[in-house]
Specification:
- By secondary structure, the chain is an alpha/beta fold.
- The protein has 2 domains: 183 residues, Rossmann fold; 170 residues, Phosphofructokinase domain (Rossmann fold), CATH 3.40.50.
- It has 12 helices and 13 strands.
- It has a 7-stranded mixed beta sheet, with helices on both faces. Strands 7-8-6-9 form a 4-stranded parallel beta sheet, sandwiched between helices. The protein has a two-stranded antiparallel sheet with strand order 12-13.
- A hairpin with a 3-residue loop joins strand 12 and strand 13.
- The longest helix has 21 residues.
- The N and C termini lie far apart (66 Å).
């Protein structure tokens, strides 16, 4: 099949999303595919016919782009429905596009699925491939997803530094970490524990219901024992009824294009929890809170070597499958072994990933406020060596 290709980057950027972009470009070059076009700001760029020619970029520049965090061709939060996807398909017909690659998370895979179905109904030959990306690590069928190991490395290092700070000037410190429904990123904070007594001393993920009174009791217990308390909390924690604690606090709840309550643009959750601790444990306590927010996504220097390699390879793998004549699919990373670490890539159905969410398994969670050693074993080979610190 001849024709042109379009590549888009969707959703939140990461440290390694450009590795996947470059890998896909490399996989398409010299294969008989026509133009390789980048959709400027994803699907919104497609319907505006706003394209970037990616086919003639010198390799040395591609290599620099691959090492640069953020979405090089621009991203979008648009959530296309069938009517939107029909507009995309019209543009594809106009520009003789027969290859569509979309780099993103589960909502992005759903967009890829809808576009593919519209093309099939019209009898139009289109190869549609979803290339995985999300720091949330919440894609089904994947051992882990590109972007997550690097963001997890950032979280582990941030908590290592915050643990040293908290030990130097003891107090109670709360860090709010990204994670709406899945606690993988918050769980990465456990890697900061290098010695007995190191924080985070408490870790709360959205896979467990959050009770404010129990939280206060947990902090009180740790503070009395250690003289300090460092806490990791997912932004998506919810009560026993499933209501997000952050959403309950917002006077004017802001939602994104996917209908999700905005969680990362506010420090309300950390401020609320700090106030609760001061109110119930004593106003003179030194209590502070930080919200990591978008810092976790594109921090230069946080890239994991494994993440860089695998992100590049999933892009190449998708391109090769398309050129081989396979019509559609999503790429998944499968772990073969831990030591030495080795992975492989597999093609799965779009419907296996689209609009679905993977969460932490029970054996990764310790009670209501901790993460198990099994999770540490799972994460360790993905994030690479962490700085070793020495303390008295």
């Amino acid at each position: 099949m001849k024709g042109n290709a379009i590549i888009g980057q969707s959703g939140g950027p990461t440290v390694v999303i450009n590795q996947s972009l470059v890998g896909c470009i490399e996989g398409l070059k010299n294969t008989g595919v026509g133009k390789i076009l980048g959709a400027h700001h994803a699907v919104s760029g497609i319907i505006k016919e706003d394209f970037i020619d990616l086919g003639d970029i010198p390799q040395d520049r591609l290599d620099r782009i691959a090492l640069t965090p953020s979405a090089a061709i621009g991203s979008s939060r648009d959530k296309p429905d069938e009517a939107y996807c029909k507009r995309i398909f019209t543009v594809f017909e106009k520009h003789d596009v027969h290859y569509f690659f979309y780099i993103g998370g589960n909502d992005s895979s759903d967009t890829c699925r809808i576009v593919n179905e519209v093309a099939k109904k019209s009898g139009y030959d289109l190869q549609s491939f979803h290339i995985p990306k999300t720091i949330d690590n919440d894609l089904m069928e994947n051992d882990h997803t590109p972007g997550y190991p690097s963001a997890a490395r950032f979280v582990a290092n941030a908590f290592t530094g915050d643990n040293l700070d908290n030990k130097s000037i003891p107090g109670i410190k709360i860090n709010i970490v990204m994670g709406r429904h899945a606690g993988f990123l918050t769980a990465a904070s456990v890697m900061a524990r290098q010695k007995a007594g190191d924080g985070p001393h408490l870790i709360y993920v959205p896979e467990r219901a959050f009770d404010i009174d129990k939280f206060v009791g947990d902090v009180d217990r740790v503070y009395k024992k250690e003289g300090r308390c460092l806490i990791a909390i997912s932004e998506g924690i919810h009560d026993a009824n499933g209501t997000s604690i952050a959403a309950r606090l917002a006077k004017n709840v802001e939602k994104d294009a996917h209908g999700n309550v905005q969680l990362s643009g506010t420090g309300a959750l950390g401020d609320f929890l700090s106030a609760e601790l001061k109110d119930k444990l004593g106003g003179k306590l030194r209590v502070r809170a930080d919200t990591f927010g978008y810092l976790q996504r594109c921090y230069p220097g946080s890239a994991s070597p494994v993440d860089q390699k695998e992100a590049r390879e999933v892009g190449r793998f998708a391109a090769k499958r398309a050129v081989d004549g396979i019509s559609e699919g999503s790429i998944a990373i499968k772990r073969k072994r831990d030591d030495p670490y080795e992975s492989e890539y597999a093609l799965i159905k779009l419907t296996a990933v689209a609009a679905k969410t993977r969460v932490l398994s029970d054996d990764f969670i310790g009670g209501d406020n901790d993460i198990t050693d099994k999770f540490r074993t799972y994460l360790a080979p993905l994030i690479g060596e962490l700085p070793v610190v020495e303390q008295f």
